[in-house]
Amino acid sequence: MSANGATPGRLFGRAEVDTSTFFATVAGFYRVVASERVNLDVLAGARVWYVDSEIDLSAGLLPGRSVQDDETWVDPLIGLRWSTQLGRGFFLAGAADIGGFGVASDLTWELLGTLGYQFSDRISVRAGYRHLEVDYESGGFVWDVELSGPIIGATFRF
What we know:
Elements: E1 2-6, E2 12-34, E3 38-59, E4 65-87, E5 90-99, E6 107-118, E7 123-138, E8 141-156
Antiparallel strand pairs: 1-2, 2-3, 3-4, 4-5, 5-6, 6-7, 7-8
């Protein structure tokens, strides 16, 4: 993400902010319900975060200045995932997890819901909506963010 614009007042000319974020969730699953129509798994794992932010202020009355900071952390998490067969290859799937617990972030959580189509035992596609939040603070670094939006994906099993 990036943004730029004029600063209020004349102390600096313009401001530019660039932020790069990477996160990945790694978890193990245990199936607690397995039927022809419904599957339910419990999960435990971790979410790895990397955030790099830079702010550049161009000269105004004061000389220009640039500040950069990055942070990496790992949050433990627990959760559920489920799927329901609708028939004719269609299925609903969802997942929910919660973590952080003050180990790294104070809290991180995610909700995901998708509608999918199974082409074969090995190939499926899905589309849906995802909401992910994290509240992390360490020293002067604060990352309190909500990420929401549509999601699409494909699964290829070997």
